[in-house]
Amino acid sequence: MILEKKIENEVVQYLTSLYGGDDWRELIHIQKTRSEFRGDITIVVFPLLKKLKLPPHEAASKIGEYLAGRMEEVRSFNVIKGFLNLEIEPSWWIKYLNRAIRSDFLSDSETVKNVPPVLVEFSSPNTNKPLHLGHIRNNLLGFSISRILEAAGKPVKKVNLVNDRGIHICKTMLAWQKWGNGQTPESAGVKGDHFVGSFYVMFEKALRGEIDNLKEEGFSEEEARKKAPLMEEAYEMLRKWEAGDSGTIELWKTMNEWVYEGFEKTYVALGVDFDKIYYESETYKTGRKVVEEGLERGVLFKKDDGSVWADLQDEGLGEKLLLRPDGTSVYITQDIGTAVIRQEDYNAGRMLYVVGNEQDYHFKVLQVILRKIGYKWADNIKHISYGMVELPEGKMKSREGTVVDADDIIAEMEQTAQKISREHGKLDGVAEQDRQEVVKMIGLGALKYFILKVDPKKNMLFNPDESIDFNGNTGPFIQYTHARVCSLRRKCAGAGIIEKAESPFVNPGGKELDLLKMLYDFPAVLSEAAREYNPALIANYVYELAKEYNQFYQDHPIIRGPDEDVRQFRLLLSVYTGKLIKDSMYLLGADVPERM
């Protein structure tokens, strides 16, 4: 926001010279001019009126006259009540384009040195099932937020916490012991995480039968679940695991290794990675130690059955169980331990947890407990809460085996991309050896854009067929626009139009000016996306940019432009648009092809 800052400085200097004081800057509000009014930049005068002691129109007019006489960038101004609308000289936008096209915004954004990093936790899978559609939204949000923060100059560490212990893991282990017949993923010809996940479903189906039988004997649902023989066996296995029983630990390691290998393949296919992976089996010990220390200091309390709790009633959060009567840990215990270990590892300035909104209470509790125990950095914890993602068929349920696996979604997106691309002739200009790579780009780009264009806080419905459309608000439409720019550059080179380092000064108008102004907005959109942890702002920006470019492309011929200067200007305007489309899609974790 180069121009806005300069305008703000001029207004501060003007008002200080007339009225004195040193607090004008906080009263100056600058925004884009609304589309129904003439102008580019608007100063909202109302906050200044109390100190100026002038009517809105008079105050705005005086400031406008000063700026128009002082700044060569200001072409004219108009006043609508308390809104001062400034129209910027077209030549300034050309100067901005020439500065911008010489820079590489993402590479040139220097990370602030000697600043504690922002830790972004995402993915956090359980080793009793494969990654599914819900994990896709989680991974894409976390990865994109990390890239956006990095582009905004923040040092970032991407971290993952694998939930590799607990009752749900024991369920799969017990089921494999009972019904696995010694099979392995290799002998079964099944990817490791899918193989293990099938035993979790087997367990839950068998458990359901036991519960139904006990309910017929008069037990409630809750009582029947606790008394079911399978659940008693699973909890006994959990106790053995925490006691370090060698046979149990050996089986646990073997089955988790099967899952880790499967997870890694999915992460590679999805295009996400991590700087460090933590494991609940390691961090829960620290969590239990921290809880025991809190108990000794009287911050936490123990009930008659031996269980340890946190009293959070003053905070409106009730009481929270931290250790069961038998001494085993609960989910939040390992989160306490993980947070403490991470802070020791990184001295984080911020800890972001990208986790679904069903865990809103959990993260409020985590922050309050850490604060009560005495960790001042607990205030740096922030839960990036996001809504659920569903398919047109309805909600997915892991226990019932109705979850749509991430691997299946990725494969389906590539298949759909190939089918639709061929139908529309989008692969006609692509060499045969490159087609599969382009299809993969289109499929993943469609998936990532469709997921990320929705505000994270909202629930969403994912429809694979809708996501791959070359004419709608989709990734492929944006990717095709980038390919169009690349094609234009090749055609210009073939026509003898040599791409110069900067644009000559012309008098842009119509869609040329509209596109220039939209390109100027990119840094502000990036800053807001980083501040709000919201990739949807980038997604919606790049879609509007692609739309604006396609309208410009239709209205303003480039190769057949009226003269050399205009052709050069329109070509470089196209080149910089293509660059920002590529940069924006990079921030969303997506690639763009040069041919489609």
Task: Please tell me about this protein's structure.
There is one protein chain. The protein has a five-stranded parallel sheet, sandwiched between helices. It contains 23 helices and 14 strands. Mean pLDDT is 93; it is low at 396-401. Helix 7 (167-179) packs across helix 9. The protein folds into three domains: 2-88, Arginyl tRNA synthetase N-terminal domain (Gyrase A, domain 2, 2-Layer Sandwich), CATH 3.30.1360; 122-390, Rossmann fold (3-Layer(aba) Sandwich), CATH 3.40.50; 407-587, Orthogonal Bundle (Isoleucyl-tRNA Synthetase, Domain 1). The chain has helices spanning 2-19, 49-52, 56-70, 90-101, 105-108, 133-151, 167-179, 185-188, 192-216, 221-227, 229-243, 246-270, 280-296, 331-346, 360-373, 406-423, 432-452, 464-467, 475-494, 511-520, 522-532, 535-555, 564-587, and strands spanning 29-32, 41-44, 74-80, 83-88, 118-121, 156-162, 276-279, 301-302, 308-311, 319-323, 350-356, 381-386, 389-390, 460-461. The protein has 596 residues and is an alpha/beta fold.
CATH T-level topology of the largest domain: Rossmann fold
Query: What sort of overall outline do the alpha carbons produce when their principal axes are compared?
Result: globular
Radius of gyration: 29 Å
Q: What is the residue-averaged pLDDT?
A: 93
How many distinct domains? 3
Distance between the termini: 34 Å
If strands are numbered along the chain, what order do they take across the biggest sheet?
7-6-5-11-12
CATH superfamily of the largest domain: HUPs
Oligomer: single chain
Topology:
Blueprint: H1 2-19, E1 29-32, E2 41-44, H2 49-52, H3 56-70, E3 74-80, E4 83-88, H4 90-101, H5 105-108, E5 118-121, H6 133-151, E6 156-162, H7 167-179, H8 185-188, H9 192-216, H10 221-227, H11 229-243, H12 246-270, E7 276-279, H13 280-296, E8 301-302, E9 308-311, E10 319-323, H14 331-346, E11 350-356, H15 360-373, E12 381-386, E13 389-390, H16 406-423, H17 432-452, E14 460-461, H18 464-467, H19 475-494, H20 511-520, H21 522-532, H22 535-555, H23 564-587
Parallel strand pairs: 5-6, 5-11, 6-7, 11-12, 13-14
Antiparallel strand pairs: 1-2, 2-4, 3-4, 8-9, 9-10
Helix pairs in contact: 1-3, 4-20, 6-21, 7-9, 7-11, 9-10, 9-12, 13-14, 16-17, 19-22, 19-23, 20-22, 20-23, 21-22, 22-23
